[in-house]
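Re: Re: ligand-bound prediction request (bumping)

Still looking for help on this. To restate: I need the protein modeled with adenosine-5'-diphosphate bound, output as structure tokens. Inputs repeated here so nobody has to scroll up.
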Amino acid sequence: MGRRLAQLANLPVTELKGVTPKRAEALATLGIRSVLDVLMNYPRRYIDRTKEVTIRDAPLDDEVVLLATVKASRAVRSKNGREFIVITVADDTGSLDISFFNQRWRLKFLPVGTSVAIFGKVTVFNGRRGMTNPFVDKVGTRVGRIVPIYPQSEKARINSDTIADLCAETLRRSGEFADIVDESLLDRLDLVDRTTAFRGIHEPNDSEEEKAARKRLVFDELLRVQVELVRRKRELERTAVGIAHVVGDGGGPLVRRFHEVLPYDLTGAQARTIVEINEDLAKGHPMHRLLQGDVGAGKTVVAVSAMLVAVQGGHQAALMAPTEVLAEQHHLGIKHLLEGFTVPDTDDGNLFGGAGMDRSLRVALLTNRTTAADRRKILEDMVTGNLDIVIGTHSLISEGIAFKSLGVVVIDEQHRFGVEQRAALRDKGAGDAMPDVLVMTATPIPRTAAMTVYGDLDVSVLDELPPGRTPIVTRWAQTDMDEVQVWQQVRDEIADGRQVYVVCPLIEESEKLEVRSAQETFEELTSGELSGLRVGLLHGRLKSDEKDAVMTQFRAGELDALVSTTVIEVGVDVPNATVMVILDATRFGIAQLHQLRGRVGRGAAKSFCWLVGEAKTPDGEARLEALVRSTDGFELAEVDLDLRGEGTIMGERQKGQNDLKLASLRRDREWVVTAREIAIEILDTDPELIKHELLAEEVDLFLKADDVDFLMKS
Ligand code: ADP
Ligand code: MG
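Reply:
Sorry for the wait, this slipped through. Here it is.
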């Protein structure tokens, strides 16, 4: 057998030549503590000397590498007040200005005399050749055709060459690496072996070698993650006991009836998803399914169908919303949808059992605002089974709350449903059985990303909007002139009896500041653009009954406009609202803007969304342009992934899984799919990974060290 990574993990970096305790400390600031960390600290770039050109010969508009020396640097201000850092570099053949927008730190990082490698495109601006925002690395004295550049730390005074030396020693002393998969699989996937891969990533002879190495290491990272996710999913399926719901013809009597009384036909996607869910519900282990669907795709109908499967079998269902406002709204909506529905009033209430008198199907709302007396009654009815569907916030599954037999739980908007909440569900089902769980999210993420982030869940996608929606017209108001037009249209729509949302600038640092800014916006608008109109103010610091009063007024059409912070981001549903104005829109992310926009366009009338304000960065510009161009949440999710990389998508959920060093969910899409297929293939034939001991060891090494017990955490 060859060298195992777990062995290197146990060797402190001080084992390597010349690494004193002091240097070890410095390396630790780069996250390098063990010899394994050295091996897996990959170059962030390579200088390909075969692509190196001189300043004089550099072609225009083509990616090139220049080796040069810093001659001068300065900060300049453009006419519109933006600050640029301009650095003049030169080689034997000439000089060139490279400029950066707003990056003052560069001045200190690149003092005169520094040797640098510059990666980017040369362009001509004002008759002078230059480069804008190129990559710049300090270079040492290393020679060779391909020189790796490692992430370096100015503070710790470790340069790229030092790290390359440590790598060389690690590779030399490691010898051959043991592999986690068979040679035949490598052949099939056209992947190089591990030894070749680690050498190829650190010391490639040409860019082909580097690419082959990267491909192999990316596969390993993704395979480890998928093995862990698939294994976890199977474990749950094997061990957790659920309720095998009886799903009859067309879903069963209540479900069928529900679909019959709906004033519209199910969309194809709704019908398909309901079948998927019903298949899960019929199984003996608990469902654990994520329902992704764009705003307005009609997730509620799917959720109610699932809940009715539980109810018709004599069980109960719970729906949890992230906020009280949403819980109330769901309560109103669902009560309305289920008006006149009955269930047999027998002890076990099983609809398939038949006999007995009927009673109305009961839906209750339980929030912090429920009065003590109502609360007592509701809690009692939950225990006796007198209540069929309970809607509330997360307090629904808190301790001390008991159900007679909780069959299905729906979690809307997926917010913070973690391990503890899951555990809390365990004792609320029938006997030892866990209820089935459906998590709904209106923040679509691309399929391959979902495979990685939610790989331990089953995923259904509502990828079709109900027919007859008029797409929301989105415009970007960049100038003051545009803004005049925004408020004019707002007043026109209000004059036509429509309602308007105005979302205030996001201030992430502090809710207090955000509330103040909302108040200021409110005052400005009511004494200015919206004077004489009925305007309400909604923000997070209002007491719940105040929030409630404002929302009720708005819903009832007693307010023309609602000035609000992002508290209206999810779920709020007022069909008469046709204009969404988002102030300082550049501060919001794509997903958030899309959610906010989804608050309009919910009725038959044409709706508008105004994104107000100048973009502050190129990314900001790309975000706002994407919103203007597309109303498709999945398309926007792809753009978001492209702009921000996967870090943000993985977010909290993936924090422990820091094994994805090289793999990019964006660039390596096909490899995500391949890795999942291979993981399933391996676990199908070898569920305990007995014949894949090394793979098992690495999964533990990389994925178990941190707390990765994040089932359903968002
Ligand atoms: P979301 O997926 O955002 O939660 P909702 O469930 O709130 O969407 O549904 C949005 C709107 O679409 C609601 O007004 C609902 O009545 C309507 N709707 C849902 N399904 C259909 C359908 N199949 N045909 C027409 N309208 C539908
Ligand atoms: Mg919804």
